[in-house]
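Quick one, T. Sequence first:
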Amino acid sequence: MPSDNKFYVTTPIYYVNRKPHIGTSYTTIITDIAARFQRFQGREALVVTGSDEFSQNIADLARAEGKSPREFCDGFVPIFKQLWPDIDIQGVRFVRTSDAEHARLVSTFWQRIYDKGDVYKDVYSGWYHTSDNRFLDEDEVPEDPENHPRLKYLTEDAYFFRLSKYQDWLLEFHEVNPTFVVPDFRRNEMLSRIKQGLRDICISRTSTDYGIRLPWDKGHVFYVWMEALLTYVTGSGFDIDAFEKTFVDGKSSETREPLWETTRADLATQPATNFWPCDLHTMAKDIPWFHAVIWPAMCQSYGLPLPRQELIHGYWNFAGEKMSKSLGNVVDPYDAMKLVGVDGLRYFLVREVPLGLDGNFSHEALIDRYNYDLANDLGNLVHRTVSMLHQLFDGAVPELLAVTEADELIEQVRRETVGQVLEHYQDLRYSEVLQAIWGLIGAANKYIDDKKPWELKKKPERHDEISTVFNRLVNAIRSVLLLVYPVMPRAANQFWQIMNFAGCLEDQRSIALEELAPAGHKVNASQPVFQRLDTKKILAGEESAKAAAPPDQAPAPVTARPVAAEDGAHVITFDDFGRVQLRVAEVLTAEKVENTDKLIRLTLNDGERERQIVAGIALHYEPAELVGKRIVIVANLKPAKLRGILSEGMLLAATDSEGRMGLLTPERGVLPGARVS
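Structure tokens:
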């Protein structure tokens, strides 16, 4: 928890070599959710994002267009800046690494580290990835790197940061701060790599003159990662000149020991506008090494108070592959918003996958979530509650009169949901936030179906009972809107206006969850917020568009190979069996598929990536007992959809004559990814 009334959260500093896509939007949306929730808790929240402009990739693209790198970036920065309000990102500060203020802070920061003796000069030789803007470790180099289109072998004079010096410190830091990296399995990955031994890292380049020059050697420019991380400090309002004046014998008089215990309250010389140290960094799973290992070591070397937490999320895949600008398979967020609006997009991205795991994007899944969860569940709950309120009570909230067991139960669900959701928000478990909220929505809809107010109104002697029903429903909806606001601010406010609650949700604080709508409160007329989409027509239009695409853009047709058979029997050859990839996978998460009796959605680590499989095993296994289990899956089965959820494979199970089922598991503790042969 912050030591003051401020909260500071950042996105990664994005490469502005292409337009932003769904992955960019996802990171920024979950950052915005964190900030909105903290404002709901009464804190002043700052979101910092920006443009990472000193990569070799950008320099090459700019040269190809006959532009300077700054001119090239000038073409994309406004597109990024415009997307943020379009996807309802609030309170953003945008920082460019090419800004003079950032360069000055970088120089000051690294000069102190150099003077301390934590930087030395040597020669660097290695493979550099021009898209990822990083040097590859030896075990990352492919077999034929010379022919890789984005790899260059570099040998150059360079300066190095003594990262190896901080190996023991980093292990202690992560041990004392176990929630610094979430989710936990990402932290374990970082710890494992640290324990394998740290090597000093290259921080400068001479093979290019594009970048921020080293203050002590103008012939070198900073390696992009070594300066881009400091954008988080540049954007925070931190006055590094004021902080420099507090150093005595290499240590600031305003910091605590150990350094990670220093809070904003300790930094007496900082201006009131300062938000450093950062409360939360958000990022995808390709860059935690820089953030969870190199970045803390840099801060410790300089003497800068350390950030508090880092949230690592997975990739978004499309058609089975990670979305990538270089692959050209990215989804434009504006295309998605044309279908389901900004709230539909935000809801889908947050609900579809638990944070930390990979997600699969498809237009069908996007529309299904919109239709079933938003139009059917939430929209229908508000519409029929408001409509019947006008029919039965002239639009006024009735008094709480006769209270039955069912009335007590829905109130209990409401209160429990409030507690669960607040806890999930605090723990950054946003998919679980929405699951819990929709649990309350489902309970409220069932409450209406069970109570049948349309029948109760025919029985005057039960007037008190129907009065209680609508009092409970209005207050359940009030709680839903307060809780869902950080994820869907625009739609939540539209429903808030329909319910005629005072003000807007931006002005509400968590204390409002303890308040109830008073009897006599008048609601407005119902208005459609989410209208169902015709999935078949939309997807048919998408297919038509694909069919009309030029041949060089259309996917190559896949022809199925015939299965061999002998004498009509269902037999296969050894070659046929060889095409089936059986692999050991570990279950990371498991949850029942809503509105089904048999289906469980499992997220698995198959040794290469995370995937999800939907399996009809809920009658035989509870989700909790599956987590951590290692099972055998068919890894190369064509993905299919079950109840609108993409299933990427099949798990193997045996069922006996009495209907008992058992999953196939390896006898010994082989690792995920092991092939079954």
